[in-house]
Fold this sequence. Notes:
By secondary structure, the protein is mainly beta. It has helices at residues 2-13, 38-43; strands at residues 47-51, 56-63, 66-71, 74-81, 87-91, 94-99, 103-108, 121-125.
Amino acid sequence: MRVVHVIAALVALAPSACNGISSPPGKGAGANSAAPSRSEADTVTYYYYICEDGSTIAARYPTPDTARILHEERSIDLNLARSASGARYVGEGWQWWTKGMIEGTLTSLAANEEVASASGLACAARQEGQDP
């Protein structure tokens, strides 16, 4: 019974953590769209980042060890990887490295790379009221 109370307390606190926004990206859903399904959108918190090239990344963290990012109509599933600082996720040829949910860098991994050598696309967390 105590586990249920702890889980309920964590769920209640989750939407307020790190300026997460409990709605999906505003792009239309198509066959190849990265937009989440309606039922997923009702229960998932997204964290939005505005990147130096003007694009937007929506990130969600389904478990402590996984991330899914939506960038330019592409959905990328990632797994937590070892890092000296911040949280680093890799998968599908990409690396998403965040620092305190305030900034993140999306980088393509070269063949046989475990840690990206390129500088990547720098992004900053969107502030409340800031347009994407």
